[in-house]
Amino acid sequence: MLTLNKLLKMYGLDMNNSIKIARHQDTRGVDVHELFASGHFELYQSYQERNEFKDCEYLVSTLGIDNSQALFIGGVRG
User: Fold this and answer.
1) Radius of gyration (Cα) for the chain, nearest Å?
2) According to the model, what pLDDT value does residue 34 have?
3) Contact 70, 64 (CB under 8 A)
4) How far is residue 33's CA from residue 24's CA, in Å, rounded to a whole number?
5) 53: which residues sit within 8 A by CB, 6+ positions away?
6) pLDDT at res. 2
7) E strands present in the chain
8) DSSP H/E element including 35
9) Residues 22-56 pLDDT 10s
10) Of the candidates 4, 18, 13, 17, which has an alpha carbon nearest to the alpha carbon of residue 56?
11) Is residue 61 packed enough to be buried (19+ CB in 10 Å), middle (13-18) or exposed (0-12)?
12) Is 29 exposed, middle or buried (0-12, 13-18, 19+ CB in 10 A)?
């Protein structure tokens, strides 16, 4: 099985860095899948009630799907 850690290592990400993995699944009625499909997801992700992404060198973004699964959509260096 290809896990997120294996995928990140395959692409050369040093796992000793500070990495934050965000599993987006908005409970306020926002359809994050639609935001991603329409190209508005980055704007959504850039606004946080708390600065959840501070102190991390990399942010890996996923969209929540069934149960505890997630769909990898990208990563950025902080």
Assistant:
1) 13
2) 94
3) yes
4) 9
5) 20, 22, 59, 78
6) 84
7) 19-24, 58-64, 70-77
8) helix 32-37
9) 898 877 888 999 999 999 998 888 877 777 788 88
10) 18
11) buried
12) exposed
Beta bridge partners of 75: 60
The total number of residues written for the chain in this structure: 78
Is-contact 62 70, C-beta < 8 A? yes
Question: Which residues are 20's β-sheet partners?
Answer: 59
Residue with tokens 């040093």: 14
Contacts of 36 (CB under 8 A, 6+ apart): 63, 73
Residue range 13-24, pLDDT digits in tens: 888 999 998 898
pTM: 0.78
- Phi/psi for 64 (5° steps) reads -65, 135
